[in-house]
Design goal:
- The protein has about 350 residues and is mostly beta strands.
- The chain has one helix and 30 strands.
- A hairpin with a 7-residue loop joins strand 26 and strand 27.
- The radius of gyration is 19 Å and the shape is globular.
- The two termini are about 15 Å apart.
């Protein structure tokens, strides 16, 4: 079977519970390859914010977090989006959001000092609790992740030479700083990239991974005990102030993918993906990676998706080889049993659709 047709069939089967499946001719409002295949059905948000935070709950429910303190929610598969932002948040930069259903979500604002904050809602955004407001001018928070609806972590760039981790056990209403002793030292210039909300990800009840760049090597940290102790491994992705691992995703506790590259427009990113089969202890460069920088990453059954400002790629073999299927701009992607969502600049949000031709 041809690579594109195989990608279509695998993604369609994996996401059939809630994915949009169509036949040619093209569906209006859908961005896709000219030859047919998977693509993105745009769901107009009415916003011009840049959405780097995305939480897919189902095929009908999703949350977005973006620039200008913007938080949107849909409960009808993107036909309409509601503004549910915390009051007084217009000056904040939301870069990550975790949602558990149509009512409960936790959103992270990034920035130096008290610009880094975490808000939580349990009523669909009608009201929000400010659970965390950073009071350390050295800290800059990048990403948040949850193991379940109550227990989660957020990470800051290094403070005192080590990445800082905060923890919640009450759905984001309160947070505490975890001890630094279990975190390996950071490299000079090493940091996380708050580009897609996927520099800190979890799988199962205890495993969590932290992706970095900016230093002499790009690395992925791994904790098996909810962030108390960590190990770290180098990856083959190049690292510099503009390069590194921007996103990681794991389909189980052992098999994961990392994507990144150089975020500067027009700069080459020849080694933009790597894979692991041992929980992140070792990483191997993809045989055929995406040809350009990718900031967002998601798993849908046996398939993987990567997105960036210049397009979207799919993989059927755990991230070892990738096929471009779309050229539209997205910053982040999230997949659940009901399908995949993507979001990015100029208010763009979309659901994955499958154009079956022939």
């Amino acid at each position: 079977m041809r690579p594109m047709r195989a990608l279509v069939r695998t993604l369609a089967v994996a996401g059939a519970c809630g994915a949009v499946i169509a036949t040619s001719p093209a569906v209006p409002g859908t961005a896709r390859a000219a030859t047919g295949g998977p693509g993105w059905r745009l769901t107009p948000t009415g916003s011009d914010a840049r959405f780097r935070g995305l939480a897919a709950v189902s095929g009908t429910v999703a949350w977005l977090a973006g620039s200008g303190g913007t938080v949107l929610r849909t409960t009808d598969a993107g036909r309409t989006w509601q503004d549910v932002a915390p009051p007084g948040a217009a000056g904040l930069e939301f870069r990550d959001i975790e949602a558990f259903d149509a009512r409960r979500a936790v959103v992270l604002a990034i920035g130096e000092g008290d610009a880094s904050r975490v808000y939580a809602t349990s009523d669909g955004g009608k009201s929000w609790t400010l659970g965390f407001k950073n009071d350390d001018p050295r800290a800059f928070y990048d990403c948040v992740t949850f193991f379940d609806s109550r227990h989660g972590l957020a990470m800051s760039d290094p403070v005192g030479g080590r990445f800082r981790i905060i923890s919640t056990s009450d759905a984001g209403r309160t947070w505490r700083v975890l001890p630094a002793e279990g975190m390996p030292p950071a490299l000079e210039g090493e940091a996380g990239f708050a580009a897609s909300g996927q520099c800190l990800v979890s799988h199962g009840s205890r495993d969590v991974w932290l992706a970095t760049g900016g230093g002499s090597r790009s690395r992925v940290f791994h904790s098996r005990d909810r962030g108390l102790t960590w190990t770290v491994a180098d990856t083959p992705l190049p690292s510099s102030p503009s390069q590194g691992v921007f996103a990681v995703a794991f389909r189980d506790a052992r098999h994961g993918v990392a994507v990144g590259g150089d975020y500067r427009p027009g700069e080459p990113s020849p080694t933009a993906a790597a894979t692991t089969s041992d929980g992140g202890r070792t990483w191997r460069a993809a045989r055929r990676p995406p040809t350009e920088y990718r900031s967002g990453l998601g798993h849908l059954g046996p398939a993987a998706l990567a997105v960036g400002p210049t397009g979207s790629d799919g993989s059927l073999d755990g991230g070892r080889t990738w096929t471009r299927f779309d050229t539209g701009s997205f910053d982040t992607v999230d997949c659940v049993a009901g399908g995949c969502w993507a979001a990015g600049e100029k208010g763009r949000a979309a659901r994955l659709t499958f154009i079956l031709t022939g």
